[in-house]
Automatic annotation (TrEMBL), chain A:
The keyword Oxidoreductase applies. The keyword Translocase does not apply. SMART domains: Transket_pyr (SM00861). Residues 1-174 form the Transketolase-like pyrimidine-binding domain. Its EC number is 1.2.4.1. PANTHER family: PYRUVATE DEHYDROGENASE E1 COMPONENT BETA SUBUNIT, PYRUVATE DEHYDROGENASE E1 COMPONENT SUBUNIT BETA. It catalyses: N(6)-[(R)-lipoyl]-L-lysyl-[protein] + pyruvate + H(+) = N(6)-[(R)-S(8)-acetyldihydrolipoyl]-L-lysyl-[protein] + CO2. This is pyruvate dehydrogenase (acetyl-transferring). It holds the Pfam family Transket_pyr. GO terms for molecular function: pyruvate dehydrogenase (acetyl-transferring) activity.
UniProtKB/TrEMBL annotation, chain B:
It catalyses: N(6)-[(R)-lipoyl]-L-lysyl-[protein] + pyruvate + H(+) = N(6)-[(R)-S(8)-acetyldihydrolipoyl]-L-lysyl-[protein] + CO2. It comes from the Eukaryota. GO terms for biological process: pyruvate decarboxylation to acetyl-CoA. Residues 101-402 form the Dehydrogenase E1 component domain. The lineage of its organism: Eukaryota, Viridiplantae, Streptophyta, Embryophyta, Bryophyta. GO terms for molecular function: pyruvate dehydrogenase (acetyl-transferring) activity. Its EC number is 1.2.4.1. It comes from Physcomitrium patens. InterPro entries: DH_E1, PDH_E1_Alpha_Subunit, Pyrv_DH_E1_asu_subgrp-y, THDP-binding. This is Pyruvate dehydrogenase E1 component subunit alpha. Keywords: Oxidoreductase, Pyruvate, Thiamine pyrophosphate.
């Protein structure tokens, strides 16, 4: 996946000389997960700017440069570090187009590795989707495969809105064959992973893999789940989701986000509001625990949703077979 | 503490024409670092050491740009009742431009106070009275393609940068003809046409934006190979902001990459009710620039001509690619922090001291004493400004309030960001959408 992200970013930088990368260790070091490896030599150090450790200020700087004509891609070395840039992300990134009455656009992409990894400790294992979710003016997408990583990276860079692209620490080594021809994914669309008839399972990022793993067991037991990777965390693709709900009448959300105020919480209420009549039962939602991610292995495992929990949840919603 | 704060008040009354009072130390002989001044004839007098660069630090190469130079310049002896034309600090046109801009700033702010108390303007309104020399002194040197960021005390920066008074007043009234369509308000003035990048309510958050604009300037040179004058950026902020992390982070980055940005501290001694001396371990803000290797200066911010001289050097430095400058302007706000501030903490003596140094009065005196302008010319400027401000109010009054359809219009530059609705269409394709009737 990191190569796909690299390809997407490189293609966009070649296509438009105003695209640049700003972040810690993005240049000489090649990025903490090697997404920008080789970029310094290829594009020069003005286009791949190694910054001092000052997230709020360099994010603000990226915003100022976006307002004046550039298209920066800001890398949070770990997404968690972007908490330091919350002032700039919420106040300036999200708001300036509005408070300026539409005079300035901020075509910025903020990306980086996040999510729960392998025993990285609480601060390096944060789930930030919910923190930025409410900020008006931001779009949020989460990539999950090399294919959609490249496509979403390109789409995010081309988008005139500020976009947060959530990558996951454990997915960088995924391998997949992707097309040679140029392609761009749609930022606002969800992705059908497995069509089915019995229940709609909505997920994103790493949990997609726990869901597909659980699906193997479920199919063996005679279930027919429809799996959708929502990809766009904000806004939700209510069409793809709605078509699925109209078909299956049952919904389970599986996410890595915290339970409280998470993506699942918003999604649940959006589905209820729009598709209440289509539902045969309550919407299930499996989220990670509202705990700071523990260091110790067994505790960390208990923090995130595991495949067996997904199987149990589907059995409960659909009835045992 | 009492001794320190009394230093501020005990500034000698010096001739505004040629002298550079060192307000911190009462006038004579302070060994202050100052940047090298090109216009040595004007600013260096007896007892000044012409600026020299400090020796290279061994093993590094971080040349300290701050240099030793003048402090209290002794008064130039009177050579007659008139100064030579060659010695004058401004031409007639320049003098009148500066005067008009400062009078506009003052009159506009006074009108804001009136309008606020009449219920035409709402929320938090922070007036700039007394600080006009800083805005005028710097911004009148800029081009339309240069950039400015400010804080919540931004009305006058907007006016100096060229945003029409009508648009600013309409914005304050919350009308859709305001520069930000009524969506920004007093603390969020923006103008793409005039290079005003905001108006920020949280102090400190505008400084990185100015640095970003400077980054774009340099990027366009280095990467896109654009030619012509490099646009410069100025970040205006106060003494309170100079204790904020973003200030220091930006000093570092700007100097590191030699970005064409100027950091202007409008030190008016008070952050709402917090005295600068109670919140700052070393109150001399300009001294913090050299810690980053940055050229720095302290200037009397109540004297527009001195500000302008210092500003010229800084703008030239930025434009030729030699990097940023930090300039601390000693200034004062004649009114409270905002129109809601009872302003009970500031000593009457302090207020009186600065009232006597009103920058508009000082410039007027200079122009008249040196026969650069006549009383009649200045009066006609004042009358013109009165009309401009009245017209701005009439325009704002007559303008419409925003309609419902405006609510969602500028949330996204690309309204596809509102997503795809259950019917498969993008929500923004729904005609009623921006009036908030479509579900978001």
């Amino acid at each position: 996946m990191f190569e796909a992200l690299r390809e997407g970013l490189s293609e966009e930088m070649e296509r438009d000389p105003k695209v640049c990368v700003i972040g810690e260790d993005v240049g000489d070091y090649g990025g903490s997960y090697k997404v920008t490896k080789g970029f310094s030599e290829k594009f020069g150090s003005w286009r791949v700017l190694d910054t001092p450790i000052a997230e709020n200020s360099f994010t603000g700087m990226a915003i100022g440069s976006a307002m004046t004509g550039l298209r920066p891609v800001v890398e949070g070395m770990n997404m968690g570090f972007l908490l330091l840039a919350y002032n700039q992300i919420a106040n300036n990134c999200g708001m300036l187009h509005y408070t300026s009455g539409g005079q300035f656009t901020i075509p910025i992409v903020i990306r980086g590795p996040g999510g729960v990894g392998r025993q990285l400790g609480a601060e390096h294992s944060q789930r930030l989707e919910s923190y930025f979710q409410s900020v008006p003016g931001l779009q949020m997408v989460a990539c999950s495969t090399p294919y959609n990583a490249k496509g979403l990276m390109k789409a995010a860079i081309r988008c005139e809105n500020p976009v947060i692209l959530y990558e996951h620490v454990l997915l960088y080594n995924l391998k997949e064959k992707i097309p040679d021809e140029e392609y761009v994914c749609c930022l606002e669309e969800a992705e059908m992973v497995r069509p089915g008839t019995e229940i709609t399972i909505l997920t994103y990022s790493r949990m997609r893999y726990h869901v597909t793993q659980a699906a193997k067991t479920l199919v063996d037991r005679g279930y027919d789940p429809e799996i959708i990777d929502i990809r766009s965390l904000k806004p939700f693709d209510m069409y793809t989701i709605g078509e699925s709900v109209r078909k299956t009448h049952r919904v389970l959300i599986v996410e890595e986000c915290m339970r409280t105020g998470g993506i699942g919480a918003s999604l649940r209420s959006a589905i209820m509001e729009s598709f209440w009549d289509e539902l045969d039962g309550p919407i299930g939602c499996l989220s990670s625990q509202d705990v700071p991610t523990p260091y110790s292995g067994p505790l960390e495992e208990l923090t995130v949703v595991q495949p067996h929990q997904i199987v149990t949840a589907v059995e409960n919603l659909c009835g045992k077979k | 503490m009492a001794a320190l704060s009394s230093l501020r008040v005990a500034v000698p009354q010096l001739d505004s024409r040629r002298t550079l009072p060192c307000s911190h130390f009462g006038g004579a002989g302070c060994e202050k670092a100052f940047f090298r001044c090109q216009s040595s004839k004007l600013l260096l007098g007896a007892g000044c050491v012409a600026g020299e660069k400090a020796p290279r630090v061994a093993g590094g190469g971080n040349v300290r740009a701050a240099v030793s130079a003048s402090k209290a310049v002794t008064e130039k002896p009177n050579s007659g009742s008139k100064s030579d034309k060659a010695d004058l600090l401004v031409t007639k046109d320049e003098g009148l431009e500066l005067y008009e801009d400062m009078v506009l700033g003052r009159s506009f702010e006074d009108m804001c106070a009136q309008m606020y108390y009449r219920g035409k303007m709402f929320g938090f309104v922070h007036l700039y009275n007394g600080q006009e020399a800083v805005s005028t002194g710097f911004i009148k040197l800029l081009k339309q393609t240069d950039f400015v960021t400010s804080t919540y005390r931004d009305h006058v920066h907007a006016l100096s940068k060229g945003v029409p008074a009508r648009q600013v007043m309409a914005e304050l009234f919350g009308k859709s003809t305001g520069c930000c369509r009524g969506q920004g308000g007093s603390m969020h003035m923006f103008s793409a046409e005039h290079g005003l990048l905001g108006g920020f309510a949280f102090i400190g958050e505008g400084i990185p934006v100015a640095v970003g604009a400077a980054f774009t300037s340099k990027y366009k040179r280095e990467v896109l190979k654009e030619e012509g004058d490099m646009p410069v950026s100025i970040a205006f902020f106060g003494d309170g902001t100079a204790n904020n992390g973003q200030f220091f982070e930006c000093l570092n980055m700007a100097q590191l990459w030699k970005l064409p940005v100027i950091f202007v501290v409008e030190n008016n001694l008070w952050a709402i009710g917090m005295s600068h001396y109670r919140s700052t371990s070393d109150p001399e803000i300009w001294k913090k620039g050299p810690a980053f290797g940055m050229a720095s200066a302290h200037v009397d911010g109540m004297d527009v001509l001195k500000v302008r001289e210092v500003a010229k050097e800084a703008v030239e430095r930025a434009r030729r690619g030699d990097g940023p400058t930090l300039i601390e302007c000693e200034t004062y706000r004649f009114r409270g922090h905002s129109l809601a501030d009872p302003d009970e903490l500031r000593a009457p003596a302090e207020k009186a001291h600065y009232a006597a140094r009103d920058p508009i009065v000082a410039l007027k005196k200079y122009l008249l004493d040196n026969e650069i302008a006549t009383e009649a010319e200045l009066k006609s400027i004042e009358k013109k400004i009165d009309e401009v401000v009245e017209d701005a109010v009439e325009f704002a009054d007559a303008s419409p309030l925003p309609g419902r359809s405006q609510l969602l219009e500028n949330v996204f530059a690309d309204p596809k960001g509102f997503g795809i609705g259950p019917d498969g269409r993008y929500r923004c394709e729904d005609p009623g959408f921006t009036a908030g009737t479509a579900q978001v």
